[in-house]
Amino acid sequence: MDQAHSPSANAQSALSPQVIRDLRAEHNALRARDFCDRFQIREAQLLAAYTGRGVTRLHAHPDAVMPQIERLGEVMALTRNASCVHERVGVYGNYKSGPHAAMILQPEIDLRLFPSHWVHAFALNEDTDTGPKRSIQIFDAAGDAVHKIHLRETSDHAAWDAVVTALATGDTSDALEVAARKPAEAPKSNPAKCEVLRDEWRKMTDTHQFLRLTSKLKMNRLGAYRIVGAPFVERVPPEAVDAALQALAKSKTEIMLFVGNRGCIQIHSGPIETLRAMGPWQNVMDPRFNLHLRLDHIKEVYVVNKPTQRGPALSLEAFDGEGNIILQIFGRNAEARDSRPAWADILSTLPRLHTEETV
Question: Cα separation of 304 and 233, whole Å?
Fold first, then answer.
């Protein structure tokens, strides 16, 4: 499990690639992300420092990457933000390109990709005591991870060299300049438009209409949630997320669990079964799906009801202290419905806030 971003790790690194490598040799027991936070570099800069030393620079655009990944067979897909890591085993395929948004639509690997944030990419090939450790890793302009693909024993390792060759840029530089991190968008509400928001919310026929609605009213997701009120949104305490995971593991209710960042959203569809808490982390440890969630990062949580033509789409949505969305959980679509009674039952039993806590 990786640690969250250090708040101070926003300046570009003044460390040379050689210094980065020397420091890494001294601190090789640290996880890569922890190392980067300690020395205030970006994860992409750490990989770049090893270009030609087990690391190859790749073309980063999804149109280039995704057809090649299909050749690797079964792999592990990883998408994360500063508070949650989503890992899913499966096969890439059914890639749908788009200038602003692209998709992978497979039963297990289900992704929404935003190509403008796919800026840097690397292939990592490490020799370890247990055999080669291979991955393809994509980063945004700030050098933060967007998406990673890790090969497994069941992957087609024979295709690795051909995939890397097909994607290689030929750039052998071991230094990488990165942009400043963009701050989280602050919650945007427009109380003067609250009744318009409520009227338009009631008329929604598809969940995808929501962001267009908030944009039109000069709001964003969290800002709208804060003001729209019942029966559309109810704020619940942070511990409601863990309570929901516990109930889902007990009941085996099928869900869709979304985790993402600016460049990628990854979706797990199905039940969750095995939970293992460890310090501030709550972890789903199932054979083909792992989730690592920092419960202590959760500051605002909402039960959300969006009307659709197929019935109400009920979700549980968690945000961090800066207004970033950490995860969303929906009931998995079943029999042409957007809701599952078992999921609605779980949401109805979650801890509630006292009135004075909602102010």
Answer: 5
36-58 pLDDT, tens per residue? 999 999 999 999 999 999 999 99
Structure tokens at 325: 């969305």
pTM for this prediction: 0.93
pLDDT digits (tens, 9 = 90+) for 28-37: 999 999 999 9
- 49 and 41 in contact (C-beta within 8 Å)? no
User: Residue 78, exposed/middle/buried by CB under 10 A (0-12, 13-18, 19+)?
Assistant: buried
* Structure-block tokens of residue 136: 């393809």
DSSP 159: G
Q: What is the pLDDT of residues 89-120, one digit of tens each?
A: 999 999 999 999 999 999 999 999 999 999 99
Strand ranges (DSSP E) for the chain?
55-58, 73-80, 84-91, 95-96, 102-105, 110-113, 120-128, 131-139, 145-155, 233-236, 255-260, 264-270, 275-278, 281-285, 289-294, 300-306, 313-319, 325-331
Q: Distance between CA 136 and CA 69 in Å, rounded?
A: 9
Q: How far apart are CA 140 and CA 150, in angstroms?
A: 18
Cis, bond preceding 351 (omega within 30 deg of 0): no
Per-residue pLDDT at 85: 98
- Closest by CA position to 98, among listed 61, 60, 140, 138: 61
C-alpha–C-alpha distance, residues 138 and 358, integer Å: 39
Residue 176's SS3 state is coil
What pLDDT shows up at residue 130?
Answer: 82
pLDDT > 70: percent of the chain: 93
Residues 6+ apart with CB under 8 A from 271: 248, 252, 253, 254, 255
Residue 355: pLDDT band (50, 70, 90) is low
Q: How far apart are CA 123 and CA 151, in angstroms?
A: 11
pLDDT digit string, tens, across residues 313-326: 999 999 999 999 99
Question: At what angle are helices 341-348 and 239-251 packed, to 10 degrees?
Answer: 140
DSSP result, 20-87? HHHHHHHTTTS-HHHHHHHHT--HHHHHHTTBTTTEEEE---HHHHHHHHGGGEEEEEEEE-SSEEEE
d(CA 267, CA 306): 19
Other Cβ atoms less than 10 A from the Cβ of 51: the count is 18
